[in-house]
Design goal:
Shape: globular
Largest sheet: 6 strands, parallel
Helix content: 40-55%
Strand order of the largest sheet: 3-2-1-4-5-6
Structural class: alpha/beta
Number of strands: 6
Strand content: 5-15%
Length: about 240
């Protein structure tokens, strides 16, 4: 029913596939850079995107961690080929640098919020919810949650991670990150919803709140519980 577009050659077909993922990578990189800028300006990025989205031709991309086997990889294939033929790409690699830096930005922002709440990193703990590269799938390839966990650990936090979709044995073998079961989690100073699997959504904001100490910080990367958290004055909430 979707039909078939017959490309004139394998090279054209492969180029089309690569630039489709590159285009998405660059669009996400733009909103990620805007999220960093708006954070410094004290403007809520989601409010800006909601307002901009009221215009019919605004492209509805949202900030976040970019991983997986396509969007975070294909641009490097294209730029490598470009360099092989003597062309140095600028925009594509700039987008990659931005997206690859977002895990460290989120970790740094988390530490800043903890400091503002009077929580020291050496005494702090964080529960990271989700490690796959996107929600409701078991694929952890190139997931940016692992650099995020390493950055949090580097600040001195004790980090616990859970993911109902990921294979715990494979994750540990490939990354060294042990995964706990959700019911093994204890309340922490920071709750970081990295991947909004349906299981986490169904548990709801009340569960998030119960798993976060007071004072505490809730980092909701994709702003899943933005509305509920806005009405809660007892917990510091932040999202990209």
């Amino acid at each position: 029913p979707a039909g078939i577009h017959r490309a004139p050659s394998i090279r054209v077909a492969e180029a089309a596939k690569v630039i489709e993922n590159t285009q998405r990578d660059l669009n996400i990189a733009l909103v990620n850079e805007l999220a960093v800028l708006f954070d410094r300006l004290g403007i809520n990025t989601r409010d800006v995107l909601d307002a901009a989205g009221s215009k019919w031709n605004f492209l509805p991309f949202k900030p976040g961690l970019v991983g997986g086997h396509c969007i975070g990889v294909d641009p490097y294939y294209l730029t490598h080929k470009a360099q092989m033929v003597g062309y140095q790409p600028e925009v594509i690699l700039a987008g990659r640098r931005i997206n690859d830096s977002m895990a460290h930005f989120v970790a740094g922002k988390t530490l800043k919020l903890m400091t503002e709440e009077g929580i020291t990193a050496s005494e702090g703990s964080a529960n990271v919810l989700g490690v796959t590269f996107k929600e409701n799938c078991s694929d952890t390839r190139n997931s940016q949650v692992f650099p995020l966990i390493e950055a949090l650990k580097g600040f001195g936090l004790k980090v616990s991670a859970v993911d109902p979709w990921a294979d715990a044995s494979s994750v540990f073998d490939e990354t060294g990150v042990p995964l706990k079961n959700v019911d093994e989690l204890e309340p922490a100073a920071v709750t970081l919803l990295a991947v909004p699997h349906q299981e986490f959504r169904e548990k709801g904001y009340a569960w998030i709140r119960s798993m976060t100490k007071t004072p505490g910080v809730f980092v909701d990367i994709q702003a899943v519980f933005r509305a509920s958290a806005a009405d809660d004055e007892t917990l510091r909430h932040w999202s990209l």
